[in-house]
Amino acid sequence: MNASPPLVTLHxxxxxxxxxxxxxxxxxxxxxxLRRLPGVRFGKLLGTGTGLSFGPGDADLTRxxxxxxxxxxxxxxxxVVGAAWDRLAQSSARVDLTxxxxxxxxxxxxxxxxxxxxxxxRPPGTASTDAGEPAGGxxxxxxxxxxxxxxxxxxxxxxxxxxxxxxxxRELAGSPGLLARFGVGEAPVGWQGTVSxxxxxxxxxxxxxxxxxxxxxxxxxxxxxxxxxDLFARFAVRDISGDRAVLGWREGER
Length: 254
Known about the structure:
Helices cover about 25% and strands about 35% of the residues. It has about 250 residues and is α+β, with helices and mostly antiparallel strands. It has a single domain (about 5-240), classed as Alpha-Beta Plaits. Strands 1-3-2-6-7-5-8-4 form an 8-stranded antiparallel β-barrel, surrounded by 4 helices. Helix 1 packs antiparallel against helix 2. The chain is globular. Residues about 115-140 have low confidence and may be disordered.
């Protein structure tokens, strides 16, 4: 089992439309700079979307994100990269995370460690758990959790994947305990993922096992072979700072 990083941070920025040119420039320049920051073990700069359909039509050009694994628990300083995004942004949020479980790869790496058991097959945009794991089995009871899915689609399988995701996304949107969700991707097409925040691990597990559309897609995943590479990770939420609306926070939730 690979060692998990002591800290993972999620940074999300909302930029005004007048700053889109600057944001796209930053997306071109900053991925390498992000990975070279002191203390960074792994870092990805991501575009975002609603997570309802994936593909170019789902993209949100006014919101961008970074996921970063750190060598030390007191990390999290994005330095010149964060300062540049903060100058562009009209609002932002940061989520501090502790890895609970992770399986799969991202660009050939294991950025959040590696769990000893593989979770049930799932598409990005869905929330899966280890087969047979009881509700609440990931994280302490009542602890807020964040699920991250991402995958690189096989080109010949992309259309069937895009057709399969919308019913699951609609099911996810109405799930009890869901606090926030949005899509993420390294490119508009073929690099798909979702961030979702849940009131508790039990709420996430209930969605994973008891929603029929989600279960149907899980059962198709291994047979269809949608992904060239995929990853699922679950984290305990240590802290959220900034504007939660940037995360797609449900109105009225705290």
